[in-house]
Specification:
single chain; binds NADP nicotinamide-adenine-dinucleotide phosphate; globular; 8 helices; alpha/beta; 7 strands; 7-stranded parallel beta sheet; Rossmann fold; 255 residues
Length: 255
């Protein structure tokens, strides 16, 4: 077997946001690499449907959780997952929501929702993953957080979204320091990826604005699979010497 082959045989990987877009593509690719997926998002029916598209659908599990509300219960959920499935080898935290709002209409509720899903969930997932019996013992494991170019570049109306993603970037570095060498912690910093979220964000934009936005990505808009490739790599042993960093997958947007 080529050493560039990725095989997660008998390994459980938890993916939040697994029902749609980037999370779905990553969970599906993980299943194609023989991983067993613990799929998480709010809507049970969407999760069930997503899993039917994975390789060996009967091998995966799903748990419906609203991360905007129940983020604090994640350590308990991870204990339950470990009991019902087995210890986890990795986590990809991808669930998220969009937000384009001028600062004049900032509300505490919308700020909380963004921070709960993106940032607090990342921290409570990490707390849960460190519990005895939740991650596989005597093996290096990996956490990957879904970040965005919005963490390091400005766009009008994106301050709340940017705050959450920039926060994640900080979490990655401190957690990597705290959890090495047993748990690697990294992020994928993505540019615009054509997903249902992207469709919602661009639905009311004039064609010209969409073309300008696309042109800022030297390689055009990305696909969910472009991010899945990077996420699965960071979750795998091929990335065993990579921690505390962000892989930029943005079609050249930042440069
Ligand atoms: N698309 C892009 O251009 C892009 C670029 C950079 C970063 N990102 C980030 O990548 C991630 C995935 O984005 P996407 O484009 O794939 O979006 P998407 O297609 O809208 O998928 C979002 C996922 O998050 C889940 N989710 C949303 N709110 C949730 C909540 N409160 N609790 C639990 N799960 C929740 C959704 O499932 P349910 O509806 O079933 O809950 C869905 O599975 C997001 O964090 C996004 O901010 C996206």
């Amino acid at each position: 077997m080529s050493r560039f082959q990725i095989d997660f045989k008998n390994k459980w990987i938890l993916v939040t946001g697994a029902s749609s877009g980037i999370g779905f593509a990553t969970a599906k690719l993980l299943s194609e690499c023989n991983a067993r997926v613990v799929a998480i998002s709010r809507q049970e029916e969407k999760l069930k449907t997503a899993i039917t598209h994975f390789k060996n659908p009967e091998q995966h599990r799903h748990y419906a959780v609203d991360l905007a509300i129940d983020y604090e219960t994640l350590p308990a959920l991870l204990k339950k997952v470990a009991l019902e499935c087995g210890p986890l080898s990795g986590i990809f935290h991808c669930a998220g929501i969009e937000s384009i709002r001028p600062i004049q209409i900032l509300s505490n509720k919308s700020l909380d929702e963004m921070l709960n899903i993106t940032l607090k969930s990342a921290l409570f997932l990490a707390k849960g993953f460190c519990q005895k019996g939740v991650s596989v013992a005597d093996e290096q494991t990996s956490m990957v957080f879904m970040s965005s170019v919005a963490a390091v570049t400005g766009q009008k109306g994106m301050s709340v979204y940017s705050a959450a993603r920039a926060g994640l970037e900080g979490v990655v570095r401190s957690l990597a320091t705290e959890l090495a060498p047993r748990i690697r912690v990294n992020a994928v910093m993505a540019g615009a990826i054509e997903t249902p979220m992207h469709t919602r964000l661009t639905a009311n934009l004039p064609e010209e604005s969409i073309n300008d936005y696309r042109a800022k990505h030297l390689l055009g808009f990305g696909t969910p699979e472009d991010v899945a490739n990077a996420s699965v790599f960071l979750l795998s042993d091929l990335a065993k010497w990579i921690t505390g960093t962000s892989m930029v997958v943005d079609g050249g947007y930042i440069c």
